[in-house]
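User: What would this chain look like folded?
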Amino acid sequence: MKRFFLGFKSPWKIVLHLIFLFTAWAYGGLFAELTNKASNGVLDSVSPEFLINFALLFIAGITIIRMIVPTYKPQKQVLPTYYPISKWQRYCLSVVSDFQTSYFFYIALFVVISFWNLEYSKLTFLFTGFSILLSAHLVRRMFHYYIDFKLNAFSYVYFAITTLIFTVVVLDIDFFLHYLQYVSILVPILLFFVGYFLECQVIENKNVELTTSSSKGNYLFKLLVNSNKARLPLIVGLLVKLFILVIDLVMFKSKGKHIFDGQLVYWMFASPLLVFTYIFNNTWGFWKNIWLNYELRSGKYSDMINFNLRLLFIPLTIDVLITLPILLFSWHNYQFILLFYFTSLVFLTCTSFVWSLLFPMAIKSTFQMKGSSSFVSSFVTMFAVILLSVIKIYNWFYILIPIYLIASFVAYKLAIDLYKDKKYLITNKLMKE
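Assistant: Here's the prediction, encoded as structure tokens.
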């Protein structure tokens, strides 16, 4: 706390904190006023529940996203591991120190000011607001453990259990809403102990203590988040997808209909297509130095494909966690959903090796007018995903699934066979620009 208040020695920081204080106060009052008007019927176009849910979603989203925007921020270690304290004490101290930031103070102030002025669901918003704030940060810490540290294999059991619990809550949200105050208290407690269990799974590495902080953590994740040219398009693509799927879910729950009538174009957003058209149909355009490194040291495209697959794991995992719970909740044909999604995932992954080889494009800026992948690759993959979605219409179209899997294997073999001749194309397109 002393360190926090020492920051007020700077006049500019005092001015900045006053601006943040005024902003949190003003937005809390404005949010409460709008919600009160919506509950009194003054605002016909929006409901108070929508405003409250939007505010809670914003708090959760910004708390997690600030981990990687504008740059990735590793988990803060308050004390070195060689200090003679228990893992429980070190973990509790780390969690408490996380909340000693101005961000949490002003978000908490927003929640309190909103609660003070609200006439609708006052206590519910107070409980849920603080629960969301705490839970989102604890979820963020969970991601940090997998990114910044080497963990025992058993740590993935905790991640799977936590994911399963949250999936059950999302799929049966109407039931849990009746016990909202209890859920608001229990969820942060659950995540707190999951974080401690992960702390216990950290593998101590003495060599890490002797290296610079920049060498810590998962280098694949850093390749994604430390590159503005790759990070921002990927975030935009995933946010666009999340927005479309959430809008569709709301429309389905309220009107019983799907966006785009649940046909053709809809399934482009339901598949992992955006991950590839934004980034991975042009992998070497974004990481040309990585390609050059592999070329100089091994010259085997199979090694480059293995790197590509490991790099793909992170965004595809996020895509799966975004997509499948929403699709399984809004569609009852689970067989079609799972077959369509994973078939398209395998097909898009394998063909991306070919597109990155045959149609490399230099990436000169984060968002460039000519796009981040070739028109040919985008058109073919979009058409392929739309064509695969017809298996929903007629059962005999399921014959497309083995065809797509065979095509995926052929694309993989073709990429390896073509590399010796086509690697010069990558050089001409990327290294000379």
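The two ends are 51 Å apart (CA to CA). If you want, I can go into more detail on any region.
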